[in-house]
Amino acid sequence: MPAQVVNKDLQNERNKCTFNQEEFTLWWVGGEEQLKEKRSRETYFESQPEFQDKVPLHFASHQELYEETIRKATVIFSKVKKLLTDQGKYDAKNYVHFMEALLGSGFIKEGNPLGIHFSMFVPAIMGHASPEQQEQYLGKALNCEIIGSYAQTELGHGTFLRGLETTATFDPQTDEFVINSPTLTSYKWWPGALAQTVNHCVVMAQLYSNGKCYGIHPFMVQVRDSETHMPMPGIDIGDIGDKMGYKGVNNGYLGLKNVRIPRSSMMMKNAKLMRDGTYVKPSSSVLAYGTMVFVRVIIVRNMAQSLAKAATIAVRYSSVRRQSHINPELPEVQVIDHVTQQAKLFPLVAKAIALKLTSDNLWQMYERTTSDLNSGSLDRLPELHAIACCLKVVSTSDTATGVEVCRLACGGHGYLTCANFLNYYSLASAASTYEGENTVLLLQTARFLVKMWNQAVQGKPLMPTVSYLQNYVGKQVQQFPWSDSVPVIISAFQAVVANKLRLACQRIEQRKSKGFTPEEATNFTGLELTQVAEVHGRWFVLQSAYEMFEKACQKATTPLISVMQNLCKLVVYDEALRIRGDLLRFTTMTETDLVKLEQNYEACLMVLRPNAVGIVDAFDYPDFVLGSALGAYDGNVYERLFAEAMKSPLNQEPVNKTFELYLKPLMKSRL
Question: Which of the residues 16, 83, 290, 459 has an alpha carbon 20 to 30 A from that of 56?
Answer without folding.
Answer: 83
